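#struct-pred

JT: dropping the chains for the assembly here, can someone run the whole complex?
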Amino acid sequence: MDSHVTERIRQEVQSNDVVLFMKGTPVFPQCGFSAAVVQVLSHLGVKFNGIDVLQDPGLRQGVKDFSNWPTVPQLYVKGEFVGGCDIVREMFQTGELQTLLQEKGIQAQPAA
Amino acid sequence: MSVQADIEAKLQTSLAPSHLQVVNESHMHNVPPGSESHFKVIVVSEHFTGMPRVRRHQAVNEVLRDELSSRIHALSLRTHTADEWAAQGGQTFDSPACLGGGKHDNA
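RK: done, full complex below.
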């Protein structure tokens, strides 16, 4: 794997509290799976850094190798891989995601 | 063998599931009729006991490594132990709708 890509991913997930590797942007997701995660994070009022892997084929493959995860989206919280769309949605439904964010000290301000 | 049959056979062999549901949802997406590219899979297996979700999904992904690298574009996955499956009433779930991003894919 390209070491520049690896280093870039490492920097992104270490320097931002919440990072979402996704297809499209948070405003215009280009995939239903990515959109679903954006929706959950927005609903919880969590600020996150959305990175569009469609803009960079190297990054798109790189993040799959980095996380040992074959698909996008991928959510990182405080440098730790949380999961893809299914896991994020399941954790949101059970409340585990909210607990995780709280434990990690992530500010969440649900829309009134 | 069809992709769906391959997925079912591999998961049966590797994870000995007490419940296995493989649904071809390709028709919901931006692909030609008859495609086998988008699947929803529910696996209930004692194999998952004590494993966090990420590890469970990685275990399934590992079994389907060949399919995921070539033939499957998207996989919606739920992994449960028998107890968890019973506790949540055996409910299925809805996969996200398509937004057409696949047209940007080379694969």
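JT: nice. The first helix of chain A runs from residue 3 to 15. The two ends of chain A are 44 Å apart (CA to CA).
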